[in-house]
Structure formats: structure tokens, C-alpha cells
């Protein structure tokens, strides 16, 4: 799985961090999401798909 | 627009016959008239959008600001038109880079990490408020004892507002959210007092900065090295106090009402408290009375689900109607405490989506967990059909929530 994150449209809701804390984090200075791992393993897949689905800015894309 | 000139224009907001059920117009309009003309309490017309995809698209479009200008429609039945045309709304950058820089100075205070750090304090406040309600004895109004005070305590803490000033915000906040309750003179007086208070508060923080959001905004700079002007600081403080207060306060009572009106929901949570997180999201989606929605001023023509809405139109996005759209949610009319994923639009979507949403979620999760732990026997003290809605404000809610335990 390959994860793409568009930081320009990120609105810092923190929803991705709650859904997949091993894959996403937020910058301390403005809360914008950062990718910790852009090719996460199968155990993180559900959380990443959840994050992509609930992101209010639709800033996360997943390629299988 | 879809309707012709002969069709009577509906009055908005719609009225629901049952306090916990959505107005019949939501489903009707989603099906037959997804862009419909409505008249606001101001007498001005807007285009109401009710389908999930359309609401999401309009809210997410970075071109369209809130209707702050003279050429946009007004919501409230006063000369100024209320909230979205207030001095507060006009002092905060609405679009483009300026909005982004402003927003990103604030979002750092609402990260998942910050919420985790705030959680124990919020839990202690919730426990203290439940203590007070229990001491007062059943039946008690859960909204007055817990729902209303908790978010005020939390946001005042974040802004460094002293405890002794908390009560004054309710009045100011109500008047800013007015649709039909207050006169222009009352709104102006409340607005003046609120601004005067916050000017003083900003000056005090400037002289002696504390470890709070407002002090940080005063001393901080944006990504461009700019600082916030005095009017923008005051407007930001106002916005955070109003937004951080009334919406969550009402949502706490509405969430508990939804869970207790069909007590099998409460019992399912008691049996499996790990459902708290998804339950909060589902309560936000299922909210039958979230308020009037979010308006946008179209600066150019926009295609909305096959209808061309002309530039200059003010569009009202009904997130409540969108959240009940069967095209977006399986069994949209059912409250499913385990629903996941739940991409509801209660906090909006796109560049203007609620910047305090992580805090609202945390407060709702904490309240629910504390109530399940402290008052497992909680139940409504009145027939759910007899609950009464708040009227005349831009946000929806219940007047009170009488409970026993």
C-alpha cells in the first residue's frame, strides 16, 4: 500500500492521527499532517483507509 | 434554479414536529429539489443545498467565502443580518493565503497530541460537574448541570479567561447566534460589551503573556512573519468562545437524548464502552437539529448537481440533511453506534471545516465515558416527545434535558 498526503489541502483535523497513529502525525507548529510511513504494512491498512475516508479535506489518497 | 416563479418559497429554518426527528423537508428536497429557494428570517432568499455530494462540494470549494459582504444574503431578522455579517466575521481573513496563514496559527492548539494532554483535565471537570448534578438530586437538567458548563470551562481555560468571567459569555454568545430572538439594539450592545471585554483581555495578555492560546496568538507570527492585528485578535477570541461553547454544549445534551430516547442504545454502550468513539461520530451525523447550516457566497456561477447556481447567490449548505442522505450512508435513517467509517459533515468539509473539531470530539467522548461510568442507570425523566427545541438561534439544541439515575 502506498499513501499520498496533500499537505496544502490538509486542515489539521487530526482525524488521520486518531485512525492510524503509526502512519500519520501532526506538525507541532501548525497541526498539519505528516506521513511517518508512506508504504505501511498490512496491519495498518484498515486504519489508513479509515483515515482517507474521514479526512474532512480528502487530503489522503491510497494506492494498492 | 429548479423552482419556477410560481412555486412558493419555503421559510427556513424548517420546523420539525418531533424534537429528535429531522424535518420532513430534508428527505423531500434531497429527492425532488436538491437546490431549492428558501427565505431566511431576514426576509432574504438563499439557495438551500441538501444532498451529501453537493454540500460537500460547495463547502470544499476554496473560491467561496462566507457571506460577510453587503451583496450577500442575511440570515437574522435584524438590520445587520446577524452572525455571518458581524464585525467579527469581517475581521477574520476569509479566503486564500491570508485565511490559510490565520488558520494555521490556531490549528496547532487543536492537534491530537494536545487533545490527549487536555483529556485528563476535561475528565476531572466532567466528574466535578456530575458531582454537582448528583448533589442537586434527581430529576436534574443535564444540559444546565453538565452540557452547558463543560465546554465553557474548557474554552475559557484554553483562552486564559478567568473562571469568574465564564458566565458572561453565555449572554454574549447567544446574542451573536441570534436569528429572531434579539433586536438589533440588543445585538449591538452585546457585541460592544463582548469586544470591550476581549480588548481588555488581549491588553492584559499582551502585558503579561500566559501559557494560553490567546497569548500565543499575540506574541506569535504566522508562516510569513506577520502578526495578527488587534481587531483580528479580538475577532478570533470571539469566534473561538462562541464556537467552542454553544455548539458543543447543545451537542452534549442532544447526544445523551438520542441515546436515552431509545434506551437499548445506552445499554449497548454500557455493555461495550469501546463504542464511545464511533457513537460520538454517529450522534454528530444523526443530529436532527444541528442548526441552520453553513452559508457560502458564490463569487461566480457554480454547477451544483446539474443545476447552475448564478454567481452572487448565497448558498445555505444543510449538513444535517446531507448527513441523512441514503446515497452517502447505508441505512442513513438508522442510528448505528458502530458505524465506521463515518464521513459525516457535522463539522463541515474543506478549508473552512471546524478548526475546533478535535476538541469537540474529545469533550463529547469524555462526557459520554464519564456518564457511563458514573451514572449507568441514567434515563430520561420525561417522554422524549416532550423535549423542547431551542428556537431562534443559528445553532440547534434542546432547551433542557431532564434526567434521573
Automatic annotation (TrEMBL), chain A:
Gene3D superfamilies the UniProt entry points to: 3.30.70.20
Keywords of this entry: 3Fe-4S, Electron transport, Iron, Iron-sulfur, Metal-binding, Transport
Cofactor(s) required for function per UniProt: [3Fe-4S] cluster
Domain 4Fe-4S ferredoxin-type: start-end pairs: 1-29
Keyword S-adenosyl-L-methionine part of the UniProt annotation: no
Pfam families the UniProt entry points to: Fer4_13
GO molecular function, one term: 3 iron, 4 sulfur cluster binding
Function in brief: Ferredoxins are iron-sulfur proteins that transfer electrons in a wide variety of metabolic reactions.
Record protein name field: Ferredoxin
Organism: Actinocatenispora rupis
UniProtKB/TrEMBL annotation, chain B:
Domain of life of the source: Bacteria
Cofactor(s) this protein cannot do without: heme
Transmembrane helix listed as a keyword: no
Alphabetical list of Pfam families matching this protein: p450
One GO biological process term: antibiotic biosynthetic process
GO molecular function: heme binding; iron ion binding; monooxygenase activity; oxidoreductase activity, acting on paired donors, with incorporation or reduction of molecular oxygen
Keyword Iron in record: yes
Keywords attached to this entry: Heme, Iron, Metal-binding, Monooxygenase, Oxidoreductase
PANTHER family linked to this entry: CYTOCHROME P450 BJ-1, P450, PUTATIVE (EUROFUNG)-RELATED
Membership in a protein family: Belongs to the cytochrome P450 family.
Name used for this protein in its record: Cytochrome P450
Species whose genome carries this gene: Actinocatenispora rupis
